[in-house]
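FORM 7B: Structural annotation worksheet

SECTION A. Query
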Amino acid sequence: MMNNGFISPLKFLSLSFCLACLPSNTQAVNIYPPIITTNQQQQNKQTESPEVGLEIIGSPSLNRLVIPMYRYTGECPGSSKGIVKASFTSTAFPPSRDRRVIVRNVSRGVARVARDPFPFTDRDYSRGRGSEITEITIGSGHDGQFLIVRQGENDFDYTIKEKNTIVDQGTFTAYVETATIVEEKNKVPTTKRVCPGNRIDDPLGIINLLGSIICDKEMHEVTVYECPSYPNVRK
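SECTION B. Predicted structure
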């Protein structure tokens, strides 16, 4: 019963105890989010699938490589292969003291002949979140400087060692694609020293050893225009 805008004490008490009138099988709704403890977070991480493979420097993707391929146009056409830098990582077996990791590309078509070793890299795996950085490029056959891959899917196996003890072994797959970068290259001026007269004979090979030219007249410099040389693999 309303009285000058106020609820009577009896009505207030009946409203306060209305929850007691609910059926016994009624469940209260929790409007607050569940609290996740630190132990629960650690258990959730342990149940997640471990991440393993090649982490590309400058890219958020794991096991996805985009290798630049340079094509030169203009007065000096040509081409070069690019590289990407990556490190091996494993959330199940992270880097630790005295550890190294060997990663091999065991895909079909990356070894030139049957007796060639699979392309591989042997890297320090003792600190940080991943292995020592390795440089990767397109090719066939093992290379002492680069880890060789092919376009498309590449199958890898890996071995993590701690001194002489194998800590973990496994496999993973990485996908490789290329991106063509076109650059115009023209001849550039180069200064050379030339002999305006006759070169003196050098039967003892002294000229070759010294890397100089013996001329019967005073040498002078000229400017010539030449195309630059392109490396097979461009860093």
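SECTION C. Observations
DSSP finds three helices and 14 strands in the chain. Residues 7 and 92 are 65 Å apart (CA to CA).

SECTION D. Sign-off
Analyst initials: ____
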